[in-house]
Amino acid sequence: MKSLPYFCRGEVIRGFGRGSKELGIPTANFPDSVVDNLPADISTGIYYGWACVGNGDVHKMVMSIGWNPYYKNTKKSMETHVLHTFKEDFYGEILSVVMVGYIRPERSYTTLEALIAAINSDIEEAKVKLELPEHLKLRDDNFFTSAPSSSSPLPTTTVTTIMNGH
Ligand code: ADP
Ligand code: MG
């Protein structure tokens, strides 16, 4: 995929409430403004990369890009599971991510156990791949040190300009 690595950031909004948190795998959702900016060659499926909340530390992440049931599967959604245990939820905060690699396309699972097993294997793959020097380098990218706080989020136009700089 030519667009990888892909940098983006946006406010964490409430998701569709599919109970990801109950499965032990909370996923922070981006608003349409971020999803709509995705390059055309970014297909649906599971990605891995780096993420940071507000001005916090950069952590490993896995992201699912899928079809949003809220819009009758006509619009994409971007959901990031950060590989870190947070003390509190961070709705309304700015989440900055860089997607660095693709793991697999979307699949449907017949049981919840099969779904959870697949996600856990995605997480293991992400943990290993992100240790590669070319990926570790992106953890230290200026993009993360310039992350705005939730009290002063950048307007969408500015965010787009920053992203195009990458
Ligand atoms: P929703 O349907 O609103 O997205 P989820 O059950 O997917 O609800 O939970 C996502 C929320 O959980 C995030 O918006 C965030 O505030 C919180 N959260 C706590 N820990 C994490 C984490 N490690 N990764 C992603 N989100 C997390
Ligand atoms: Mg979610």
From TrEMBL:
Pathway: Cofactor biosynthesis; FMN biosynthesis; FMN from riboflavin (ATP route): step 1/1
Domain of life assignment: Eukaryota
GO molecular function (one): ATP binding
One GO process term, biological-process aspect: FMN biosynthetic process
SMART domains, per database record: Flavokinase
Cofactor: Zn(2+)
Catalytic activity: riboflavin + ATP = FMN + ADP + H(+)
SUPFAM superfamilies xref list: Riboflavin kinase-like
Domain Riboflavin kinase: residue ranges: 1-131
Keyword Repeat assigned: no
Entry's EC annotation: 2.7.1.26
Entry's Gene Ontology cellular component terms: mitochondrion
Protein name: Riboflavin kinase
